[in-house]
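Supplementary Methods. Inverse-folding protocol.

Structures were first reduced to a discrete structure-token string of length 109. This string, shown here, constituted the complete conditioning input.
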């Protein structure tokens, strides 16, 4: 079982992605922004994968990923966005459950 930190500020999208990831067998912790992400990681919790929206309130997903990877260089990252961006690995919204599962599996491989 992989541990995933999901950072998504849209509550409906976050709830759906959270459910899909749990159905795929992952343990998921959800955060709405960078601040909540840092709190989730502050107690020594280690995540295998960060799934983050590129556009977040207060900061962007790329900056968040850099900071979290500074703390844990083994953290893998999957970026999502409704807008085309130049980051890798990237999953374009809207995506299907199968596309999400495939992207997460690839990011964890």
């Amino acid at each position: 079982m992989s541990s995933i930190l999901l950072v998504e500020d849209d509550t409906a999208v976050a709830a759906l992605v959270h459910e899909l990831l749990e159905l795929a067998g992952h343990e998921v912790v959800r955060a709405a922004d960078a601040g909540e992400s840092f709190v989730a990681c502050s107690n020594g919790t280690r995540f295998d994968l960060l799934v983050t929206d590129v556009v977040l309130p207060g900061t962007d997903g790329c900056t968040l990923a850099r900071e979290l990877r500074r703390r844990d260089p083994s953290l893998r990252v999957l970026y999502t966005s409704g807008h085309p961006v130049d980051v890798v690995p990237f999953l374009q919204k809207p995506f299907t459950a199968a596309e999400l599962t495939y992207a997460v599996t690839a990011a964890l491989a």
